[in-house]
Amino acid sequence: MSAAERLDRLRDAAAERADGADAEAYAAALEEVARAEGAASWAQLAADARVSDMEPASLPEALKYALFLGRPEMVDALLARDPALGRADFGLTVALGLRADVERVLKDDPKAATRIVGIRSPILHLAFSRHAQARPDVLPDMLAIAERLVAAGADVNDSYPFQPGSDERLPALYGALCHADNLPLARWLLDQGATPDDGESLYHSTELPHLDGLRLLLRHKARPEGTNALLRALDFDRIEAVELLLEHGADPDAGRGGDIPDFPALHQAARRGRGAEFATLLVSNGADPTRLHDGQSAATMARIHGNRRFARALAGLAPPPEAGSAAARLVAVAEGNGAARADLTDLSRGGPAEGLVTRLAALPDARDLMGRYLDAGLAHDETDDMGLSPVQIAGWNGLAGHVADLLDRGPGLMRVNLFGGGLVDTILHGAENCPDAEGRDHAACLSVALGAGAPVYEDELAAPIPEHLRRVIRTALDRNPDQLRPKAERPEPGSSG
Questions:
Q1: Which of 22, 208, 287, 345 has the most C-beta neighbours closer than 10 Å?
Q2: Where are the ANK repeats (predicted)?
Q3: CB–CB of 206/174 below 8 Å?
Q4: Structural domains present in the chain
Q5: How far apart are the C-alpha atoms of 482 and 460, rounded to whole Å?
Q6: For the purposes of burial, counting CB atoms within 10 Å of the CB of 36, is it exposed (0-12), middle (13-18) or buried (19 or more)?
Q7: Backbone φ and ψ of 160, nearest 5°
Q8: 256: pLDDT confidence band, cut at 50, 70 and 90?
Q9: What would the pLDDT profile of 328-385 be if each residue is shown by its tens digit?
Q10: Contact by Cβ (8 Å): 282, 266
Q11: What is the pLDDT of residue 21?
C-alpha cells in the first residue's frame, strides 16, 4: 500500500469519527487521527505521506516549490527525508537562509552570487522565498545573506520574466514585499537602492492584508501617478489605502498609462461595490462626477451595478443616462422598472453591458441583480480577459448561491481559463487565495459544481488541497467515479471544452 493510499484510509477513519458533522468537526477528527499516528498535525502527516511517495530525483524541485509557495509542512517533510537537500543547489541554500553554507560557497566561488539557478538568480530565490513566514527566526540570516550576495555583485533591482519570453518581469522588491510578505527584506532592498517604482510593487502592495507594505513604498517616494495602484486599491473595501495613495499624489481622474485604456477611479469604485464614503473621498480629491466612461457617468455605472449607496452620494452631480440608451435600459432592469418585460439580448456584447455579468459574479450582494440581467437576455457564459466565466469567478469568490444560479443556466463545464484552471480547480484556488475566503463557502461551491457534473482531474487530487474540500471531492467521486479524468484529458488553456 502506498503512503497516499494509507492516508486515504486515515481520512476515512476521520470521516467515520466525525460521523457526518461539519467541516470543523472533521478537521478536529483529522487532528486526532494524526496524533494517534504520532504526527504533530494532520498537515504534517499528509506532507510526510506525499514526500515518502516521491522519487529522489524530484525532491529538490519539490523543495523549491514548497519554499516559493510557503508550504512549511512540505519543507519540513522534505528535509526530514533528506537533510542534505538544502544544499542540492545554491538557490535552495539561499532560499532556506542557510547562512554558513552560503558564506562557504561564496568564499570558494564568488560568481555564484549572480549565477542563475533554474530561472532565478540567488537574490531572487531569497526574495521570493516564503520560508520566513513560518520561520521568523531565519530573518537575520536572510538579511545577512542578502548583504553577502550584493557585496559579491548581486543587483537589488534584479528581476526575472513572469513567463518564459514575457516582457513582464518580477523584481526582487516585488518578491520580498508582495509575494513573500517579508517586510524586513523589502526594507533592506529599498535602503540599498531598489527602485520603489518597479511597475509591480506599488500595485501589488495594495493586495496585502495590511498597509505596512504600501506605507513602506510611499516613505521611499514611490509615485502612484502613472500606475493603476489606486484602481487596484479600490478593489478592496479599505478606504485607508485609497487615502494614502491620494495623499501621495494619485490622481483619481488620471489614466493608468501605457496601452491600458483610461478608466477613472470614481467609475472603478462604483462598479466594485464601494460605499458612499469612497465617492465622497474621491470627489473631494478632484474626481469629476460629470466625467463619462463608455458614455456613462460614475453614478450611472453605480446604478447599473446595483450600488445604490454610491449612486446616492453622487445624486445631482451628473445627469441621468439618456432615455432609451443602453445604459438607461440596464438601469431600468437593475432598479426593477419593467424588468419582467425587458429584452437586453442585443446588449450582450459591447457598451455598458460588456463584462457586466462577470463583474457581478464576484459581488456578494449582486446575486438577484445578476439573475435579472440574465433573465433579460445577457449572456450567462461570457468570459473576461483571462478566460474566466461567471461561474468560475463566482466559484473562486466562494459565492455558492451565484454558482448554483449560474449552473442552472447550463454553462460549459469543460471550459478552461487562460490560467489553465477548470471550474473545480478554480474553486480550490479561490479557497486558498480569495481575500475574503473566511466569509465565503467554497465547500458549497465545490459540492454544487460536482453535483452538476464538473470534471475532476487526477492532478487536482494530487495537489495539497484543504482537507474539507478534498472530502467533498472524494464523496462526489464515490457517487460517480467516472467524474475523475486523467490529467491528459484536461483541455488546453482558453478552451471551451
A1: 287
A2: 225-257
A3: no
A4: 1-53 (no CATH), 54-163 (no CATH), 264-354 (1.25.40), 380-497 (1.25.40)
A5: 15
A6: exposed
A7: -140, 155
A8: low
A9: 999 999 998 765 678 888 886 778 888 999 999 999 999 999 999 999 999 999 999 9
A10: yes
A11: 65
Which residue shows C-alpha cell 460629470? 290
The residue type of 258 is G
